[in-house]
Design goal:
The structure holds 2 protein chains of 2 kinds.
Chain A: E1 6-11, H1 26-42, E2 47-50, H2 63-73, E3 78-81, E4 84-85, H3 91-104, E5 111-114, H4 121-125, H5 132-148, E6 152-154, E7 162-165, E8 178-182, H6 186-194, E9 199-202, H7 212-224, E10 232-240, H8 244-266, H9 273-282, E11 285-288, H10 290-304, E12 308-313, H11 320-344
Parallel strand pairs in A: 1-2, 1-12, 2-3, 4-5, 5-8, 8-9, 9-10, 10-11, 10-12
Antiparallel strand pairs in A: 6-7
Helix pairs in contact in A: 1-2, 1-11, 2-3, 3-5, 6-7, 10-11
Chain B: E1 25-29, H1 33-44, E2 48-52, H2 57-67, E3 72-74, H3 76-82, E4 85-88, E5 107-110, H4 116-119, H5 123-126, H6 132-139, E6 144-148, H7 154-159, E7 171-176, H8 179-192, E8 195-198, H9 221-229
Parallel strand pairs in B: 1-2, 1-4, 2-3, 4-5, 5-6, 7-8
Antiparallel strand pairs in B: 6-7
Classes of the chains: A alpha/beta, B alpha/beta.
Chain lengths: ~350, ~230
């Protein structure tokens, strides 16, 4: 049922610490990330995807440049985003960057586009948050046309119109598979179906089975819009070490620190260890030994009929060395074990086998 | 600050079977994460629910059919006509797009929160000395605004509905100046599967906002009463 299944890693490039606890400089974090991606390819991971943030704790503000560096050091791994904040990007510029990346990498570029959960990019690039919804709709429309049907004749509200416009470099048909990232907004699920784009669910809290109705909504919407069946992916947080104990010991302090910052900013209560453990045991957070994490991933793949699973590897300022060790375990142990578990699983007839570039 | 624990109100709560039909109608403006989650919970509690998005009923028909089966997809005008109690569950940066007299005489449950990182810079909401629901009340002067159902994330609302008396039943606060309206909203909270807590007049709703500790934390009624009166 899962003869084509993709395992990805997602990186937001948090400014890490070294193993002695001292902060690493931002430029070093960017170079370290390239090494992490090179290792990801060596251990068989299918894709490496970079986020987009504009705040001092993350170094992923120009992911396409980092992906280009990774492209020159690798041959097989797919290179994408997790997630491109499309509402504040110019689709023409985004097209040129990723079409160029696709050429450099010999056809390995991919995208996840979404509205993003943070809004720092709106004031930074001069957009009005009140236009949040309209901006995304319009920009997705233009991006999809640039990817599918050049030359493009198009007009919209937020940028100059295009008439019979060709944008270079050209890409072969079906290149730059573009997924729509959704964090729980039903309208976004329906929109992905309307545009005929695959769906990437981002689940960062709560029980993943709660998203089964969204999967159903996506299927029904695809049918309603006369679209073919399309794959569904999941983005979630996690960390793998040799044992459950080690994984928690390394991850918990950084998780705590990260969420304490978020809590201060958003007025939440910082999470307790019990809440962390509850997310690990029942939520969509994959922290533990390779066996523990593989079992949880296999379960969620079956529950939500997924074709792609992207792990946001290591939460917070976890050191580069621990990230490398985690990537190694993920590729060499977790992924083969998930495939094994899925092969053992009772047949379910609702899993999709559609390839992402179809 | 007055904080009334749920058990003091039990005699107020009639079972859905005995409730008047117009007491079991609920309107929800906003068909996003929160709106559809509340619609599903209200249907399960025996309510007749009408829900609207920002456009035509057809735009949200499939979403409502799949995520909240049994609810009626409607326009916002129809939602307001459907019920005396309306939950406002639109993105916080968009509530000012609704006409000021839209909810005249209605109980308006303000389930919104203002988070600058998500809603953008909004000086009026950011500096509201008596909480954002006061700003909502000023925007809709003829509505009977009650701040409630804002405290929990939509997945917490989804995962924590419990029958009366369950040991792990958690609390949701309500604040409003119209005391009868507050009682009615508390009855809704109770039927949805949560212990209702009266946290007093609308300005006390500040205690339920992101800078107050109850947000996105699950509390029992006693804990929440203590916090709200502390």
């Amino acid at each position: 049922m899962t003869n084509h299944f993709e395992f990805g890693l997602d990186a937001f490039l948090p400014v890490t610490v070294d193993r002695s606890g001292s902060p690493v400089s931002g430029d070093q974090v960017i170079r370290n990330t390239v090494e992490e991606a090179v290792l990801a390819e060596a251990v068989g991971i299918d894709s490496f995807n970079i986020g987009e943030h504009y705040r001092t704790e993350f170094m992923d503000s120009a992911g396409h440049v980092i992906l280009a560096a990774i492209a020159s050091r690798t041959e097989r791994i797919r290179l994408g985003t997790s997630v491109t904040v499309l509402s504040t990007q110019d689709p023409v510029r985004l097209y040129t960057e990723f079409a160029t990346l696709d050429a450099l990498s010999n056809g390995r570029a991919q995208l996840i586009v979404g509205r993003g959960s943070l809004t720092d990019s709106f004031p930074l690039f001069g957009f009005d948050l009140a236009d949040y919804e309209e901006l995304f709709e319009e920009k997705l429309d233009l991006l999809v046309r640039l990817l599918r049907e050049q030359p493009v004749t198009w007009s919209g509200k937020f940028r100059s119109a295009l008439t019979d416009q060709l944008v270079s470099p050209p890409i072969p048909e079906g290149h730059i598979p573009t997924w729509v990232g959704v964090g729980g907004s039903p309208q976004s699920v329906v929109r992905a179906a309307r545009f005929g784009l695959p769906l990437m669910l981002a689940i960062i809290g709560g029980r993943p089975e709660r998203f089964a109705p969204y999967v159903e909504l996506y299927r029904r919407a695809l049918e309603q819009y006369g679209q073919p069946e399309l794959p569904i992916g999941l983005h979630s947080l996690g960390f793998v070490a040799e044992t459950d104990e080690d994984a928690t010991k390394i991850q918990w302090p950084f998780y705590k620190e990260q969420f304490e910052w978020a809590a201060r900013e958003r007025g939440w209560r910082p999470p307790t260890y019990e809440q962390f453990q509850a997310e690990v045991d029942h939520g969509s957070m994959y922290v533990g030994s390779p066996e523990t994490v593989a079992r949880r991933i296999a379960t969620v793949i079956r529950t939500l009929s997924l074709s792609r699973f992207d792990l946001h590897y290591a939460i917070g300022r976890v050191p580069h060395e621990d990230r490398l060790a985690m990537i190694d375990l993920y590729g060499r142990e977790v992924m083969p074990r998930v495939r094994e578990l899925l092969a053992e699983a009772p047949e379910t007839d609702d899993a999709l086998t559609t390839g992402v570039s179809s | 600050m007055m904080a009334v624990a749920a058990n003091e109100l039990v005699e107020d709560f009639v079972s859905p079977a005995g409730a008047a039909a117009d007491d079991l109608r609920l309107g929800i403006v906003g068909a996003g994460k929160l709106g559809t989650t509340l619609a599903r919970a209200a249907i399960a509690a025996g309510y007749e629910v009408a829900i609207s998005g920002s456009g035509q009923a057809d735009d949200i028909a499939l979403t409502v059919e799949v995520l909240a089966p049994g609810a009626h997809a409607a326009t916002t005008g129809e939602v307001v006509r459907h019920a005396d109690m309306i939950v406002l569950a639109v993105p916080t940066h968009r509530f000012r797009e609704l006409p000021p007299d839209l909810f005249a005489g209605k109980i308006l449950v303000d389930a919104m929160n203002y988070w600058e990182p998500v809603d953008g810079d909004d000086p009026e909401l950011a500096t509201a000395p008596d909480g954002t629901s006061k700003v909502v009340q000023e925007r809709f002067p003829s509505a009977r605004v009650v701040k409630s159902l804002n405290q929990l994330s939509y997945h917490q609302l989804d995962e924590n509905q419990r029958p009366t008396g369950a040991p792990d039943r958690i609390a949701i606060g309500s604040a409003g100046d119209d005391r009868l309206a507050v009682r009615k909203v508390m009855r809704l909270v109770h039927r949805l599967g949560f212990d209702p807590v009266d946290v007093g007049p609308l300005e006390n709703g500040l205690a339920l906002e992101p800078d107050g500790s109850p947000l996105a934390v699950t509390y029992t009624a006693d804990e929440l009463s203590k916090l709200a009166s502390g």
